[in-house]
C-alpha cells in the first residue's frame, strides 16, 4: 500500500511524480494479480463508501 510517508516525500520533493507513479502502477498490478486491498484486509466489504446505489439496472 502507499503510505502517507510516500506521498509526503513526493510533496516535499524527496520523491518524484514518476517514482510515485511507478509505486502506484505496481500496486495496481499487485491487486489485479490477487493481492488483497487494504479494504479487503480489514473486511469492510459492504460498509465501504459507495456514492451510488448498488442494484440491478431497471
UniProtKB/TrEMBL annotation:
Domain of life: Bacteria
Pfam families in the cross-refs: GD_AH_C
Organism: Paraburkholderia rhynchosiae
Residue ranges of every copy of the D-galactarate/Altronate dehydratase C-terminal domain listed in the record: 10-55
Protein name per the record: D-galactarate/Altronate dehydratase C-terminal domain-containing protein
InterPro entries: GD_AH_C (IPR048332)
